[in-house]
Amino acid sequence: MGYRVVLVGDSAGYGYKNMIKEMLEGDDRIDEIIDVGLNDGDEAELYPNLATHGAEIIARGDADRGIFICGTGMGVAMSACKVKGIRASVAHDSYSVERLVLSNNAQILAMGQRVIGPELAKRLASEFFNYEFDPASHSKANVDAICAYDGSLEE
Description:
155 residues; alpha/beta; Ribose 5-phosphate Isomerase B, Chain: A; 6 helices; 5 strands; 40% helix; globular; RpiB_LacA_LacB_sf; intramolecular oxidoreductase activity, interconverting aldoses and ketoses; Rib-5-P_Isoase_Actino; isomerase
């Protein structure tokens, strides 16, 4: 079974969101793409509203992972993390994308369209789906501590 992926892009990130969407549509690892971001000509929407909406879809279990894009990635990451049970972070290099999943079991990769080039963004988005968190890893205790803090730890 493939991933169900939420894509978010605000007015500063919809270009990369659409580029990544096109790439993922041809990826055998992806079963469903849920696009809750803006497109050219859409009425402006605040990035916190877009990011929390996308994160809520993941938190409910209606999607597995998300790629959220704004100008820097920071705003959508901070907003998504306000949703109980969500772990999101900015990653603009391959090692950080790897650790996002393997060390932190994060569901959301956030990136900034104003920070990195399009080829790197596509590469990192693809790499995000190369990794699966190992619940037997030494990182599980850290993830459990994060989840316990927001009350999302499942025993």
